[in-house]
């Protein structure tokens, strides 16, 4: 039996959906970082867990794909725009709401023996990154760049595959960040970025 657990969000650790133990292969979404998936500084981090992955010579792979979605109830995403090299929140930094969809992004990682945890479960962190340079046209001033981006609503696909069987299983989710339009941001030693919060996800 295969179990994959993805966690989408930014901050807490809480189960959203659990796999059925009877399923021959199942991918599920659960909570946040340290055993889940989170958003942080232009990155959606999917912490994926899988058991019964088969022979490692078959290159078992875990993948996380994110497609931002437009809605009628609020912005599709938020940007932090500013002049290059400017980490000072005021003046010179502006949060911009975008209501159109942007290009999706994803990433995959191949499991290795070092990913094996107690009980035979394999854990892998998959970091997906949006192309910030492609979003600069949304900034209000010429010459400004996008310093950070967060999707307010997104379709998420988790996939497990290997070289022999191809796609073993996948699962689709829609995840929404509550009160996204008012998401705060901070400026620290890593730069200017949005504060982490938990997504609410529904399996499709």
List the helices and strands and how they pair.
Elements: E1 2-6, E2 25-29, E3 37-39, E4 43-51, E5 61-68, E6 77-82, E7 93-98, E8 105-110, E9 122-129, E10 145-151, E11 153-162, E12 166-177, E13 185-188, E14 191-194, E15 199-203
Q: What can you tell me about this protein's structure?
A:
Strands 1, 2, 3, 4 and 9 form a 5-stranded mixed sheet that branches. This protein has strands spanning 2-6, 25-29, 37-39, 43-51, 61-68, 77-82, 93-98, 105-110, 122-129, 145-151, 153-162, 166-177, 185-188, 191-194, 199-203. The chain has one domain. The protein is mostly beta strands and 204 residues long.
Average of per-residue pLDDT values: 74
* Portion in beta strands: over 45%
> Level of helix content?
under 10%
Write the H/E string, N to C.
EEEEEEEEEEEEEEE
Number of domains: 1
- Shape field: elongated
Quaternary: single chain
Q: Structural class of the helix and strand makeup?
A: mainly beta
Describe the sheet with the most strands: 5 strands, mixed
Uncertain residue ranges: 1-37
Rg measurement, Å: 18 Å
